[in-house]
Design a protein that fits this description.
Helix content is 0%, strand content 37%. The protein is an all-beta fold. A hairpin with a 2-residue loop joins strand 10 and strand 11. The radius of gyration is 17 Å and the shape is globular.
């Protein structure tokens, strides 16, 4: 039986600006809120500390996604991220391997203080050791299409937002 490890309670706040121009920004994890937000979730305690709020303040807004680890969908192949016509997915009974890439739980909450939109994300993975990359895709187009491998792929359009995490043991880069 695989021992389940939780990702350290490093919680990030990611600002979402639905701007017309494409931006790429690297954010350093910090215990301080982003400008315009009072969410301070990277201190690992989930408790509100005036004047800041933490996950505790968003109990009614949090969406939780649990993975029962039974029949996980995993990337099967394709050689280029920008060439989805050749992607395919596989089923991985018992969870994605290696465990560093097996996301077991994910949480999200949206907050809109003073007309700005913030998306807060958190996740755990089965094994905290090793480096893995995880991307949350915020696609504007809800349609799906079948590629040359008969794989269903989400439609991407200009202006979609990709939020990428590089989990490196107890460290995290965004």
């Amino acid at each position: 039986m695989r021992r389940r490890h939780l990702w350290p309670a490093v919680i990030l706040a990611t600002a979402i600006a639905w701007a017309t121009s494409a931006l790429a920004a690297s954010l350093t994890p910090t215990t301080q809120p982003l400008p315009g937000s009072t969410f301070q979730g990277a201190d690992a305690n989930q408790l509100d500390q005036t004047p800041f709020v933490d996950w505790n303040a968003f109990k009614s807004k949090v969406t939780h996604n649990h993975d029962d680890n039974d029949q996980d969908t995993t990337f099967g192949g394709g050689t280029k991220e920008t060439d989805p016509a050749h992607w395919f997915f596989e089923t991985s009974p018992g969870g994605v391997t290696p465990g560093k890439s097996n996301i077991r739980e994910a949480w999200s909450a949206v907050d809109q203080p003073r007309g700005r939109t913030f998306l807060y994300l958190a996740f755990t993975r089965a094994d905290p050791d090793g480096t893995t990359f995880l991307t949350f895709e915020l696609n504007q187009d809800r349609r799906l299409w079948k590629n040359s491998k008969d794989t269903t792929i989400p439609c991407r359009t200009t202006g979609d937002i990709l939020i990428s995490f590089g989990a490196q043991g107890a460290a995290l880069s965004v």
